[in-house]
């Protein structure tokens, strides 16, 4: 699934990363706890979270996660956007809730780290 | 590649910058040509340890000793020490305050995650003096 498809499926908006719309993601994880995200490595994953702070971007950086979706209409501040830009990590926001966002991506074929 | 030594300072109570040192170390390892799995293992483990330093101790220092075969990272703080290491190693056990949980940490996965992503981990802790964590990831 591409970044562009994620934006469409979640009726979202790109905050940073217009140049990376064709970037492919193969796995997804949804969590507000960054330590839980750090517990399982997923190749080329998208992270969905309702948490908005710089550690979300740093967690993505350590995990080689290249796309973050902020759910529930949350918006990152400039500090977070700058951090993502330096690391070339795509930021998307959607008004959908976490459950709905994950459900929509799942029903379009995206899977979690275990592949289930 | 000869032995490379890197040093980073971690500031106390600066949650915004927590992870800065881990990010720099990650980029250095990339420049040195290590494979992405090895780099990620080091980055995740050091990041968790760096977060711990900011949450529980008053900052600290990180030293990395890098050879072609092995990446060793020593994280030393002057925090309160860990009273019961066995308990602290249990997944889900956390003493982090509520404000830290609100930031997405304190799930009790820090030390278990460090162990999971490293080949060797040693914790040297003295109550009231500080904690030194030494971790090793072999270049495979």
Structural class of chain A: alpha/beta
Return the average pLDDT of chain B rounded to an integer: 93
Number of helices of chain A: 5
Strand content of chain A: 15-25%
Looking at CATH, the homologous superfamily of chain B is Histidine kinase-like ATPase, C-terminal domain
- Alpha-beta classification of chain B: alpha+beta
CATH architecture grouping of chain B: 2-Layer Sandwich
Element-by-element helix/strand order of chain A: HEEHEHEHEH
| Second rung of CATH, namely the architecture of chain A | 3-Layer(aba) Sandwich
Query: Spans of chain A with pLDDT under 50 lasting ≥5 residues?
Result: none
State the share of residues found in helices of chain A, binned by percent. 25-40%
The total domain count of chain B is: 1
Identify the overall geometry of chain B.
globular
Measured by residues with Cβ under 8 Å of the partner chain's Cβ, the largest interface is: A-B, 22 and 25 residues
Rounded to the nearest angstrom, the radius of gyration of chain A is 12 Å
* CATH topology-level name of chain B: Heat Shock Protein 90
Walk me through what this model shows.
Chain A is α/β, with parallel strands linked by helices. Chain A has one domain: HprK N-terminal domain-like (Udp-n-acetylmuramoylalanyl-d-glutamate--2,6- Diaminopimelate Ligase, Chain: A, domain 1). Chain A has five helices and five strands; from the N terminus they run αββαβαβαβα. Chain A has helices at residues 3-9, 34-39, 54-63, 78-87, 98-107, and strands spanning 13-16, 27-30, 45-49, 67-70, 90-93. A five-stranded mixed beta sheet of chain A has the order 1-5-4-3-2, sandwiched between helices. In chain A, helix 3 links the parallel strand 3 and strand 4. In chain A, helix 3 (54-63) packs parallel to helix 4 (78-87). The longest helix of chain A is centred in the middle third of the chain and has 10 residues, at 54-63. The radius of gyration of chain A is 12 Å and the shape is globular. The two termini of chain A are 16 Å apart. Chain B has 140 residues and is an alpha+beta fold. Chain B has one domain (4-138): 2-Layer Sandwich (Heat Shock Protein 90), CATH 3.30.565.10. Chain B has five helices and five strands. Chain B has helices spanning 20-31, 36-56, 85-88, 98-101, 110-117, and strands at 4-10, 60-66, 70-77, 120-126, 130-138. In chain B, strands 1-2-3-5-4 form a five-stranded antiparallel beta sheet, with helices on one face. In chain B, a hairpin with a 3-residue loop joins strand 4 and strand 5. In chain B, helix 2 (36-56) packs antiparallel against helix 5 (110-117). The two termini of chain B are 16 Å apart. The model of chain B has no long low-confidence stretch (mean pLDDT 93). The chains are: A alpha/beta (116), B alpha+beta (140). The A-B interface holds A 32-36, 38-39, 41, 49, 51, 53-56, 58-59, 61-64, 79, 87 and B 15-16, 18-19, 22-23, 26, 36, 40, 43-44, 47-48, 51, 103-110, 112-113, 116.
């Amino acid at each position: 699934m591409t970044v562009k498809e994620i934006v469409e499926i979640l009726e979202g908006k790109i905050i940073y990363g217009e140049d990376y719309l064709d970037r492919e993601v193969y796995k997804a994880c949804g969590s507000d706890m960054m330590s839980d995200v750090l517990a399982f490595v997923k190749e080329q994953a998208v992270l969905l979270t309702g948490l908005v702070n710089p550690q979300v971007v740093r967690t993505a950086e350590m995990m080689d996660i290249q796309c973050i979706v902020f759910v529930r209409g949350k918006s990152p501040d400039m500090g977070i956007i700058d951090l993502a830009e330096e690391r070339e990590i795509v930021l998307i926001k959607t008004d959908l809730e976490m459950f709905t966002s994950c459900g929509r991506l799942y029903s379009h074929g995206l899977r979690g780290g275990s592949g289930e | 590649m000869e032995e490379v030594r890197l040093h980073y300072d971690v500031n106390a109570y600066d949650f915004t910058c927590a992870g800065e040192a881990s990010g720099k170390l990650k980029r250095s390892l990339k420049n040195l040509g290590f494979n992405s799995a090895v780099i990620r293992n080091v980055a995740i483990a050091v990041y968790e340890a760096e977060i711990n330093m900011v949450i529980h101790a008053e900052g600290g220092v990180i030293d990395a000793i890098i050879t072609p075969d092995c990446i060793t990272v020593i994280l030393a703080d002057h925090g309160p020490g860990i009273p019961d290491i066995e308990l602290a190693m249990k997944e889900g056990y956390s003493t982090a305050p509520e404000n830290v949980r609100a930031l997405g940490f304190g799930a009790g996965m820090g030390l278990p995650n460090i162990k999971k992503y490293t080949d060797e981990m040693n914790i040297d802790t003295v109550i009231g003096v500080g904690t030194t964590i030494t971790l090793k990831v072999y270049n495979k």
